[in-house]
Amino acid sequence: MNRRQVIVIGYGMAGARLADEIRARDPEGARVALTVVGAEAHPAYNRVLLSGVLAGGLDPGAVLLHEPDWADRSAVDLRVGVEATRVDRAARVVECSDGARLPYDAVVLATGSAPWLPPVEGLLDDDGRVASGVVAFRDLDDCARILAAARPGAPAVVLGGGLLGLEAARGLVARGSLVTVVHPVSHLMERQLDPGAGRVLADALERMGVEFRFGRVARRYVVGAEVELDDGARLPADLVVVSAGVRPATDLARDCGLVVERGVVVDDALRTSDPRIYALGDCAQHRGVVNGLVQPAWEQATVLADLLTGAVPGARYRGTPVVTKLKVRDIDLASLGEVHVELDEPGVEVLRVEDPTRGRYAKMVLRDNVIVGAILVGAPDAAATVVQLFDRGLPAPDDRLALLLGRALAAATAVSPADLPATTLVCRCNTVRKAQLVSAWDAGARGVAPLVSATRATTGCGTCHDLVNAIADWLAARKPAPA
User: Which residue numbers delimit the BFD-like [2Fe-2S]-binding domain (predicted)?
Assistant: First the structure.
């Protein structure tokens, strides 16, 4: 059988997962000759966990997705520190920064996204490079630069109060920096939270030492000295961390003539306007949506591996219901589905419970007795039940208040792992269900570490760690490992 030449451009979370999924279906490379080209010089890593590295809870080596010998063991031609500079569609060749010309039968764009720097005077030097003392928090090298620049007791300014900016702010505070977050909107994480939840979150972070300037933008940065805001206020800043949003990395696709809107446009088979070129992850736009989260990318990788190897020719990606979780120590936050819905909207039921003094906020949106959206801050018990109901589309219990207060056990959840349905989604980031953990255990993955290795559960945001441990304990009691 002639092997198909498949080139994956991008060795981030999406590209690495796709390579793993391809080799899971074609372990020896009998069907697919796989080449992965990555611009970063180190192995793929879990970008979701960078805030843990910044806060000091994780060593950088702990977030790596692959061992150094992974490529050799997996029959993958891995080229790190190499950038794909052009896709020649007519010749079917990928041109690289090291002069290599790689012929292909199929190309996958997994180029991710790049941080956006707002037009603030002083963020760039005269040569157009990021100025000294400024870091755009996006990758592992950025994390290292922040750690090298941060000092206990020294002032730092974070531009942007979105998910990543808040994780950076909390990480810097944990290392003793004096942090001020400048956010142009009146409340935090405005895409995922309503104003009430944003206020509760801000209060919780302020108690940890983070200060905020809402409704303000930076006007000028004086290197190593201060950030001047649009209202004339001056904030001392030895370090400026920029987290003002990202843009899909689409230059390569645009340059070779593919259809690009906000991202590289793909269909349900993840094909671009050229059927020999696919795209997934942060750079892809599917049904008008550009997802910047890990779970959609990894679900896309599963579908694309089925297609590229011929394992499931009918595989299609239909979209992912996204749950956003803030990975900040001492704060439990989940946002899912439709959250910007109010009481007067016809056909919906909206419930809200606020306890700002204790840092708790819960909002739930239902249609036809089914949860279609929720925000839960400081309510981990309620979040566990609500997320399961949302994932499975099950009817909500009649006692809505008990559900929001974390006192209701619904059919989607259970007291014991033994009672959880096999279809229960345990790890959202990796789409690992209870049945997969049981199967891995029965196949010899006896213990938490082997289960993690076999299924990747807990290797995304890590919030399913306790449930995976509970399931492992239940499995050990049910089927003790042989002596």
Answer: 425-471
State both tokens at 35.
């080449």
Q: Where are the alpha helices (DSSP H) in 405-483?
A: 434-442, 448-455, 465-478
The CA distance from 23 to 30, in Å, is 10
Instruction: Find out whether 226 and 237 touch, Cβ atoms under 8 Å.
Output: yes
Phi/psi for 306 (5° steps) reads -60, -40
Q: How many domains does the chain have?
A: 4
Q: Are residues 141 and 189 in the same domain?
A: yes
Please report, for residues 6, 354, 362, 416, 422, the alpha-carbon distance to residue 405 in angstroms, rounded to integers and kept in the order given.
Answer: 50, 10, 8, 20, 26
What separation in angstroms does the CA of 10 have from each of 73, 111, 129, 265? 20, 5, 23, 17
Q: What is the pLDDT of residues 48-88, one digit of tens each?
A: 888 888 888 888 888 899 999 999 999 999 999 999 999 99
Domain that includes residue 109, residue range: 4-48+60-113+247-309
Q: Per-residue pLDDT for 482 more than 60?
A: no
Q: Do the Cβ atoms of 461 and 325 come closer than 8 Å?
A: yes
Distance of CA 380 to the CA centre of its chain: 20
In a domain, 239, yes or no: yes
Task: Output the six-digit token pair for 384.
Answer: 């566990």
CA atoms within 13 A on the CB side of 300: 33
**Any idea which residue has 């279609």 for tokens?**
372
Q: How far apart are CA 218 and CA 456, in angstroms?
A: 41
Q: Residue 79 in 3-state DSSP?
A: strand
Closest CA to 438 of 398, 465, 474, 403: 474
Determine the Cα–Cα distance for residues 148 and 154; give it in Å rounded to an integer.
Answer: 13
Distance CA 359, CA 171 (A): 20
Tokens encoding 248: 């899909």
Cβ neighbourhood burial of 147 (10 Å; 0-12, 13-18, 19+): middle
Average pLDDT value over all residues in the chain:
91
For the domain that residue 466 is a member of, what is the CATH number? 1.10.10.1100
19 pLDDT exceeds 70? yes
Coil, strand or helix: which one is 71?
helix
pTM for this predicted structure: 0.89
Residue 474 lies in a domain: yes
Residues 116 and 249: beta-carbon distance below 8 Å: no
Q: Is the Cα torsion angle 331, 373, 316, 465 positive or negative in sign?
A: positive
Report d(CA 395, CA 385) in Å as an integer. 12
> Does residue 122 fall inside a structural domain?
no
- 285 and 361 housed in the same domain: no
